[in-house]
Design brief:
By secondary structure, the chain is an alpha+beta fold. The protein is 32% helix and 18% strand.
């Protein structure tokens, strides 16, 4: 299948109607973070199919998702540990038997707790698994770090603009639906320019959403206030020289770079929804380093593995699109167990659970 996939024709589409159609149909790329010429249609197709009938939002804060899920898990006898960092997966006699967990807020001096389990599931990407969680001398780690044994790469990261807006959403008449901004119908060219110089060029695509319009309890909880979230692509390489530093301690150059990126997003917000101009009382920009700080993503990879056609290369069979690993009792969940992006991650969890329960068949 991989070998027979056709390649994209060189150059831009000459027909302006087809060029626009292609760009519009490509709008879900924000959900898997790959520019069109590199993307696999598998990610595009599953994302479009998932949202074809619309989407859903929580009643109350989105934190209710984790609250309800953790409550359900406890009802089945499970437990959820917060403020807990998994330092390493315990391997004994070649099998995964548990994890070492450290209290996160206590720092590196925090107490280490050993937790044993019959099955270990890693839902934080194959890159974190082999670069952080497995013992560095394990054969699987050595093989993964040998780049001749794989062609997969981490996905790109994102930048996030969070805005507090003065006024009720209904009075401001902000959209209740999500918006996608495009700065060009020549998508790949726009991505190339942006990646080369994100200060001189606007992001090719931007997601614009107003959570305040979707939560029916918002106006009661936060009267007189609305909000907006803008999300676009951001490369780890732009911020790599600040990697390892603490947030709010990265210096003037970092903050100035953030301001330049934020200006692009604010301009796009005001052009797209002009009625909020002059009413943004506060904004803050998250960068790929923010993803590392709060999500522990490897090199700010928002979606784990980059969902280009390499994920179907037979060389990568043991790393992606598979809930099983080469280590007994150790399973993958999330996007690396099936397909990248939001939808792929959900189905990946189902496949992982099915494999553990013995229903994996020939997967």
């Amino acid at each position: 299948l991989y070998e027979d996939c056709p390649t994209a024709p060189p150059g831009n589409e000459s027909d302006p109607v087809l060029r626009r159609l292609k760009a519009v149909l490509n709008h879900p790329i924000g959900d898997y973070a790959v520019q069109p010429r590199e993307a696999t249609f598998a990610a595009q197709g599953i994302t479009m199919a998932h949202y074809m009938e619309g989407a859903a939002y929580t009643v109350g804060p989105t934190g209710n998702i984790s609250i309800r899920n953790s409550s359900m898990l406890r009802n089945f006898g499970g437990e959820v540990l917060c403020d807990a960092t998994v330092e390493q997966i315990i391997i004994e006699n070649g099998r995964a038997v548990g994890v070492l967990v450290r209290n996160t807020s206590a720092g590196q001096d925090g107490k280490i707790t050993e937790i044993r389990a019959k099955h270990i599931v890693c839902a934080t990407s194959v890159f974190n698994l082999h670069n952080k969680l497995l013992p560095p001398d394990h054969p699987s780690v050595k093989e993964f770090r040998d780049e001749t044994k794989r062609t997969i790469k981490p996905s790109n990261g994102h930048i996030f603009l969070f805005c507090k807006i003065r006024g009720e959403a209904a009075e401001l008449e902000v959209p209740t639906h999500n918006l996608w901004y495009f700065n060009s119908y020549d998508m790949d060219q726009a991505f190339d320019q942006y990646y080369a110089d994100p200060v001189a060029h606007r992001p090719p695509t931007v997601y614009i959403g107003f959570p305040c319009t979707k939560d029916p309890t918002w106006s009661k909880r936060l009267p007189g206030v609305s909000n907006a979230i803008l999300i676009s692509d951001g490369l780890f390489e732009w911020f790599e020289k600040w990697h390892g530093t603490h947030h709010h301690e990265r210096g003037v150059e970092y903050e100035e770079f953030k301001d330049q990126l934020a200006k692009h997003l604010l301009d796009i917000l005001y052009e797209t929804v002009p009625q909020v101009k002059g009413k943004v009382d506060y904004w803050t920009l998250g960068t790929p380093l923010t993803e590392i700080s709060y999500l522990a993503s490897y090199h700010a990879a928002s979606y784990g593995t980059k969902c280009d056609t390499n994920i179907f290369n037979r060389l990568n069979d043991k790393w992606t699109t598979n809930p099983r690993t080469s280590i007994p009792n150790l399973y993958m969940a999330g996007s690396d167990a099936f397909l990248p992006a939001v939808c792929g991650a959900m189905y990946g969890g189902i496949l992982s659970a099915a494999s553990i329960l013995g229903y994996g068949g020939s997967l």
